[in-house]
Amino acid sequence: MAFTVPDLPYSTDALEPHIDARTMEIHHGKHHAAYVANLNKAIGDNAELAAKSIEDIVRDLDSVPDAIRGAVRNNGGGHANHAMFWQSMKGGGGGGGAPGGALGSAIDSAFGGFDSFQAALTKAGMTRFGSGWAWLSVDSGGSLIVESTANQDSPLSHGNIPILGVDVWEHAYYLNYQNRRPDYLAAWFNVINWDAVAERFANAG
Ligand code: MN3
Predict the structure, then answer these.
(1) What is the pLDDT of residues 70-105, one digit of tens each?
(2) Phi and psi dihedrals of 56, rounded to 5?
(3) How far is CA 134 from the centre of its chain?
(4) Cα(158) to centroid of ligand 1, in Å?
(5) How far, in Å, CA of 83 to CA of 78, rounded?
(6) If you measure from the C-alpha of residue 109 to the centroid of ligand 1, how many angstroms do you get, rounded to a whole number?
């Protein structure tokens, strides 16, 4: 198999009470696993695609054969997005807060402060109708922006570099929060691994 589901960097209950263990078990063990299985099925014996990183594939969907492009866009995006999502959270109460350093300064200058950034990302997640993601990305001009994508589309596919993303599919929160997406988004800010985001920001420059 070309692609595999990465292990979680913490136990499934490590994000409680913000993200519950059962949601993590199903989200990582079933949903992410299905994206990977369907991606591998779509790629089949295409050795050229199998040799690429998932980010490189998603960054250049035009190079994917027509017959499988839709499946690779959805399932490859699903794999890339979720792999980054797990790494963007920190267990054991070590997440949350606000970043300092270069990332903190860049957020302040782009959004006018951390609270305004949080409001912008929350709004992007709330106004994404149906399923998708809200992102903090670095655009092609090197600026920090908030954006959202539908389904499993990645900012990589339109030339931006995502450094933090939040999954707003119902499967990410429905068991614990039911229809209350705003409550899930507010809780999720308590588990963000800002060290991981700062590292992506440094590498995006
Ligand atoms: Mn998901």
Answers:
(1) 999 999 999 999 999 999 999 999 999 999 999 999
(2) -65, -35
(3) 8
(4) 20
(5) 8
(6) 30
- Per CATH, domain 101-204 is 3.20.20.80: no
Residues in the chain: 205
143-180 per-position pLDDT tens digit = 999 999 999 999 999 999 999 999 999 999 999 999 99
φ, ψ of residue 163 in degrees (nearest 5): -115, -10
Q: Does the pTM of the predicted model rise above 0.90? A: yes
What are the residue boundaries of the structural domains of the chain, listed by start? 21-87, 101-204
Q: Please tell me the distance between residue 119's alpha carbon and the centre of ligand 1 in angstroms.
A: 22
> Which residues are bridge partners to 106 per DSSP?
none
Q: Which residue's structure tokens are 């999954």? A: 167
CATH number (3.40.50.300, 1.20.1630.10, 1.10.287.990, 1.10.390.10) of 21-87 reads 1.10.287.990
